Amino acid sequence: MRAIIYGLTASFFFAFTFILNRSMELEGGFWAWSACLRFFVMLPMLLPLLLLMPGKNSGLARLRAALCHLRDNWLAYLIWSTVGFGLFYAPLSLAGAYGPGWLVAATWQITIIAGPLLAPLISRPVAPAHGKSAKSAWSGLFGSMRWSLLILLGVAMMQLEYAIDISAGEALFCVLPILLAAFMYPLGNRKMMEVCKDEVDTFQRVFNMVVASLPFWIIIAAYGGAVYGAPPAGQIAQSALVALFSGVIATLLFFSATNLVKNNPDRLAAVEATQSGEVLFALAGEIVLLSAPLPELFSLLGIALVIIGMVLHSLRRA
User: Long-range contact list for 262-265, CB < 8 A, 24+ apart?
Assistant: First the structure.
């Protein structure tokens, strides 16, 4: 149950991504700067946390251990950090330029089923235990996913009344990048858990992944500078908030949650399903901060399905 609580709390802080990215876009900010500034700011935020976190080793010892692990596994870090951070957040920021935060948050829930779908393809096969066959393992996977599909149905209902007001072009440029991001985030996270095992903790893993993703973000920053110029002060300030709320707090909570259940595919799927809470939090945030209209009855029914799906998902694997 602790992993579920961590996941739900992470979804609250992740919701700031969609709200603030949309706010920056409405104020004239460029999506490439919204993407790379988050990770440029995350690094100086994570470093003191890594040094000051209590533990049996000193902060400097933990930093050295993290950097040694990064050095010894630099290629894996480079690949999967680029996938899990770069190919996740750059497309998500691009989508924010073509659609409101609620649409981005709703479409992003595809990641709920992306993780379980990827699991059989990226996990090492293991011998059946206690008479369980590969067929029963797949049955368990789809049994877990049925609650995820209920959540997705609720998301679709909640956003249907708004989606009809968006042009086909806006929907395409909004949806396709998010579909890419929805698969890249769990792929990068799960592959990095395989690389790290128990050799580094969550703080060290996130710190190393940010460092390893910097080459990608430097390229994005160069593109942003060439196309748009320097980012405005308001975009830098809001990117710092995204870095704190979503990049540091939410990412550490979510990675801690997935790390608690990394050896149980069903519970891992349940933790990933908690991210559907982002839709509710993003919608509430847009109503309060961006003056979005209140949802109508059809949307309220969708919200109810999302809540029911999350509760059933959590109770099934708690």
Answer: 262/193, 264/317, 265/116, 265/119, 265/123, 265/137, 265/140, 265/141, 265/144
Structure tokens at 199: 């050799």
- Give me the mean pLDDT over the 211-220 stretch: 97
List the one residue out of 133, 119, 118, 127 whose CA is nearest residue 264.
Answer: 119
Give φ, ψ of 234 to 5 degrees: -60, -35
Q: Is 167 left (phi over 0), alpha (psi -120 to 50) or beta?
A: beta
Radius of gyration of the chain (CA): 19
Q: What is d(CA 254, CA 11) in angstroms, rounded to the nearest whole number?
A: 8
The per-residue pLDDT for 318 is 52
Long-range residue pairs from 307-310, CB within 8 A, at least 24 positions apart, any chain: 307/154, 307/280, 308/150, 308/154, 309/147, 309/148, 309/150, 309/151, 309/154, 309/273, 309/276, 310/8, 310/151, 310/273, 310/274, 310/276, 310/277
Mean pLDDT is highest, among 41-50, 72-81, 117-126, 260-269, for 72-81
> What is the pTM (predicted TM-score) of this model?
0.83
94 vs 315: CA distance, rounded Å: 36
Residue 73 structure tokens: 């596994």
